[in-house]
Design a protein that fits this description.
alpha+beta, Phosphatase 2c, domain 1, 2 domains, 14 helices, Protein phosphatase
Length: about 475
């Protein structure tokens, strides 16, 4: 049996206004959650997940029992997020990664979803034992880009799997056999996205004190830009120690700063009903001294037709329709998406489509970005609409599309230029597309992303190339 000596750290970084990361560390659990959603409460999402984990923290014996426990934690955290969104649609769009493990003195059961990472340092070698659920990682897996290109890819923050309250989510579950001297690191992409693995390895391997190691790693992330929240938890497997096993667990980051609403609080704040209405009181019986005949004159008489009941039913239906229309309208006003408008990229407020011929959206901002200048993948994305969390995110996405369109336009123009023959071609070290050698003497392109070809021969893109989101 072993114990865990551990340390944790979470901070805003240099650019962000608030900390949307959360962490939890104890002798039996290490965890990092990276919230997302900006104004849509990413800090709340990470706080919910970390807090839910802390409530279930205890020592387990069996590895299968630990796996069931961490799977249950993830499921309950996702369900709680769904409840909060259902109570307040303004936070729809929030989500969080989850990357952590439960330790029983010999093994660690790991649960992972998103792009936060888990590393194992053993005998001076650092191994990433989690697999990023991100779009750039899928491109790496397919051999379309290299890990070095992924580090600067414009869509490196696009996550394919996350906890966001929706029913369909699929975390990775695994068990690690640990031995004395191992160091386990869980971190958000505020560290792994800015500090290369070999530097992380050097710091973890060279610093005996864990607090010094994590402070050093946080400084390195800030020196590399610090454009995201930085959160990391490190645990070292040591000989069994009662004092270490008795340490109290602690929450970090947003989990210490955000107040998690109790069930019904958000609904009450929004003015929504939070319970069942009380049963109506029976009508009051009024005594009268009138003669039966006189009283009958003022008694309600049965109507020979059912118009009042029909009218009440129609009014009720109208109220339901009106309430639904108001709810849809209110929800639509909080949503934004990007779509094509007269062949150009535009930002819309509302929801795509219409109801009974009435549009659910209105164009908020137009751009001069031509959809035809984008790669085929991005053209389809714009034509099918791209959902975003808010107006700020929409503007950031259109700026990314502008960069991609400018790049592709330059590449296409270069392809159309005739190749100039050269008497003595000189080999070049510039990157080329496999199977598409550059024409001798073709000048290299400037201002292209790392990993993109700097020399291109005139060609017509094939269907396969057009289907590649990185192809212009």
């Amino acid at each position: 049996m072993y114990s865990l000596r551990y340390a944790a750290h979470s901070e805003v970084g240099r650019i962000r206004k608030n900390n949307q990361d959360a962490a939890y560390a104890s002798p039996t659990m290490l965890l990092v959650c990276d919230g997302m959603g900006g104004a849509a409460a990413g800090d709340l999402a990470s706080a919910v997940a970390a807090t839910e984990a802390s409530k279930s923290d205890r020592r387990f014996e069996d590895a299968d029992e630990m796996l069931e426990a961490i799977a249950g934690i993830i499921t309950r955290a996702n369900g709680r997020l769904g409840e909060l969104v259902e109570e307040d649609l303004t936070i729809d769009g929030m989500g969080t990664t989850f990357c952590g493990g439960i330790f029983n003195g010999r093994e660690m059961a790991v649960g992972h979803i998103g792009d936060s990472r888990g590393y194992l340092l053993r005998d001076g070698e650092l191994t990433q034992f989690t697999h990023d659920h991100s779009w750039v990682q899928s491109l790496i897996d397919e051999g379309k880009i290299t890990p070095e290109q992924a580090a600067t890819h414009p869509h490196r923050s696009l996550i394919l799997r996350v906890l966001n309250g929706q029913e369909l989510f699929e975390p990775d579950l695994m068990t690690l056999e640990l031995q004395e001297g191992d160091r386990v690191l869980f971190c958000s992409d505020g560290l792994s996205g800015l500090v290369p693995d070999w530097k992380i390895r050097d710091v973890l391997a060279s610093h005996e004190d864990l607090d010094e190691a994590i402070q050093r790693l946080a400084r390195m992330a800030n020196l590399a830009g610090g454009h995201d929240n930085i959160t990391l938890v490190v645990g070292e497997v040591v000989a069994q120690d009662d004092a270490l096993d008795a340490r109290a667990g602690a929450l970090y980051g947003s989990a210490t700063e955000v107040e998690i609403p109790v069930v019904g609080a958000l609904a009450a704040k929004a003015g929504k009903p939070t319970g069942y209405p009380e049963s109506p009181s029976p009508p009051e019986v009024v005594a009268t001294d009138q003669e039966p005949e006189e009283a009958a004159r003022y008694a309600p008489k049965e109507q020979p037709h059912r118009w009042p009941g029909v009218l009440i039913a129609l009014v009720a239906i109208a109220l339901v329709i009106g309430a639904g229309a108001w709810g849809i309208s209110s929800y639509a006003q909080s949503r934004y998406f990007i779509a094509a408008e007269s062949g150009q990229v535009a930002i819309y407020n509302g929801l795509p489509g219409n109801i009974l011929g009435y549009p659910l959206n209105a164009m908020t901002e137009g751009t001069d970005i031509l959809v035809a200048d984008l790669p085929a993948f991005h053209q389809r994305a714009v034509n099918n609409t791209i959902g975003v969390a808010n107006l700020e995110a929409a503007r950031a996405t259109t700026q990314e599309l502008r960069v991609i369109a400018d790049r592709c336009r330059a590449v296409r123009e270069e392809r159309l230029k005739p190749a100039e023959p050269s008497v003595s071609p000189t080999p070049t070290a510039s990157a080329t597309i496999p199977g598409l050698p550059a024409a001798p003497g073709t000048p290299p392109l400037e201002n292209v992303e790392p990993g993109y070809p700097t020399q291109l021969a005139p060609m017509t893109p094939t269907a396969t190339a057009e289907a590649d989101p990185e192809s212009c």
